[in-house]
Design a protein that fits this description.
The chain is of the alpha/beta class and 436 residues long. It folds into two domains: 6-51, no CATH class; 57-364 and 387-410, TIM Barrel (Alpha-Beta Barrel). Helix content is 27%, strand content 22%. The protein has helices spanning 76-85, 105-115, 137-143, 165-178, 200-206, 209-226, 241-249, 260-264, 286-297, 333-343, 348-362, and strands at residues 6-15, 18-27, 30-35, 46-48, 53-56, 58-63, 88-93, 122-125, 127-128, 148-151, 181-185, 229-232, 254-258, 303-304, 379-389, 408-418, 421-422. One of its GO terms (cellular component) is cytoplasm. Residues 54-423 form the Amidohydrolase-related domain. InterPro entries: Allantoinase, Amidohydro-rel, DHOase/Allantoinase_Hydrolase, Metal-dep_hydrolase_composite, Metal_Hydrolase.
Length: 436
């Protein structure tokens, strides 16, 4: 009988083949075997979850940690604790809102120094593409960033300016030359305007659907022209879906994501002055939300990731024109999405595909995102029927601000294992650089 370090059994293990009763055996931090539920397997620890679900650790490819420089907004220690508490075992850190932003190898080194010894889950990194740094992209790629984030409209921070159309083309051409991925905040600045006042309606009108759709059309055209691989970040408008479908039909290498807040919240329910709901692009109508779910079901949208973009509470002033735009939800993405997905008839395998498998593929992390032999033993014990009322003060991210405060969500993360080891308050996360 082969000895393993850990066996976790469940009648609801979510594997690439679907949900089934199984025993997951771990050796050397990896899944060594997936056997029948009752198989006799020797291990010093044998955990039987019975009817609780066992999921692969989620992969969140859109997290703003803001460290170094703005760690008072969010730092690696707090962000990765929140991730683990939410069943996320790998994050990919965004390059902006840190000082310096990750737009050169030296800036990446500063990021790594800030994160060293503080990560409770594994961390990979995006580089940044800004005006004037096209020559830094290949060196950053060689250092192991997963791709390059850029903006087509102002980012909200002066140190990370948007790319002009010519600069975007140069970035895509450069990235295509070495097989890099460019991930894009796609809003057309010509169609954005200043909100006419402090209300949510005025903020929403200032960032219309047409701004997203037009930017995605332009991006798809440039991707076709340059041959680059591109990914559209945080799609909030269903007006983008047919553009994405048409581009793929003609062979453009374009993928897209959406976020829990676009799938679970809607403009009709945003309370006036509650700027925890403010994000860019904005949360749109209930009818739009239904169409986003249809886009997920049809595979037009590839993945669901948090866009966790926190700030200190003082920046969330009760004025939608002036408040910082960003939703804090890293710990809550799984129960938020499961609450709505289960109501709409989707299953846990669907949620795992959107929140683990596809994000791992996007970021080039072949060891992540699935319970299968050879993959990292990143596992999540999940009670899909638990009802949990959200208390922002009890969440692990640094500042107690979230639009989910006071909501009751379905599903609770009970235990998170990182490479077969329970996340226990000590930082055992690794950096995922290069081909890992």
């Amino acid at each position: 009988m082969t000895a393993y370090e850990l066996v976790v059994r469940s009648r609801r293990v979510v594997t690439p083949e679907g949900e089934r009763a199984a025993a997951v055996a771990v050796r050397g931090g990896r899944v060594a075997a997936v056997e029948p539920y009752g198989a006799p397997l020797a291990a010093p620890e044998d955990v039987d979850l019975r009817d609780l679900a066992l999921l692969p650790g989620l992969v969140d490819t859109h997290v703003h940690v803001n460290d170094p420089g703005r760690a008072h907004w969010e730092g690696f220690e707090t962000a990765t604790r929140a991730a683990a508490a939410g069943g996320v075992t790998t994050i990919v850190d965004m390059p902006l809102n840190a000082l310096p932003p990750t737009v050169s190898p030296d800036a990446l080194d500063a990021k790594l120094r800030a994160a060293e010894g503080r990560c409770h889950v594994d961390v990979a990194f995006w580089g940044g593409a800004v005006p004037g740094n096209v020559e830094e992209l290949r060196p950053l790629h060689d250092r192991g960033v997963r791709g390059f984030k850029c903006f087509m409209s102002p980012s909200g921070v002066d140190e990370f300016p948007p790319l002009s159309p010519a600069e975007l083309r140069a970035t895509l051409t450069e990235a295509a030359g070495f097989g890099g991925l460019v991930v894009v905040h796609a809003e057309d600045p010509a169609l954005l305007r200043e909100p006419g006042g402090p209300s949510y309606r005025q903020f929403l009108e200032s960032r219309p659907d047409a701004a997203e759709r037009g930017a995605v059309e332009s991006l798809a055209e440039e991707a076709a022209r340059t041959g680059a691989r591109v990914h559209v970040l945080h799609v909030s408008s269903a007006a983008c879906l047919d553009v994405l479908e048409a581009a793929r039909a003609r062979g453009v290498r374009i993928t897209a994501e959406t976020c829990p807040h676009y799938l679970t919240l809607d403009a009709e329910q945003v309370p006036e002055g509650e700027t925890a709901y403010k994000c860019c692009p904005p949360i749109r109508s209930r009818a739009n939300r239904d169409l986003l779910w249809d886009g997920l079901a049809r595979g037009v949208l590839d993945c669901v990731v948090s866009d966790h973009s926190p700030s200190t509470p003082d920046l969330k002033v009760p004025d939608f024109a002036a408040a910082w735009g960003g939703v804090s939800s890293l710990q809550l993405g799984l129960p938020a999405v499961w609450t709505e997905a289960s109501r709409r008839g989707f299953g846990l395998p669907d949620v795992v595909r959107w929140m683990a498998e596809r994000p791992a593929e996007l970021a080039g992390l072949p060891g992540k995102g699935a319970i299968a032999p050879g993959r990292d033993a990143d596992l999540v014990a999940f009670d899909p029927d638990a009802a949990v009322r959200v208390d922002a003060a009890r969440l692990h991210h640094r500042n107690p601000v979230t639009p989910y405060h006071g909501r009751t969500l379905r599903g609770a993360v009970l235990t998170t294992w990182l490479r077969g080891r329970p996340v226990d308050g000590l930082p055992h996360g690794r950096f995922l650089l290069g081909a890992e």
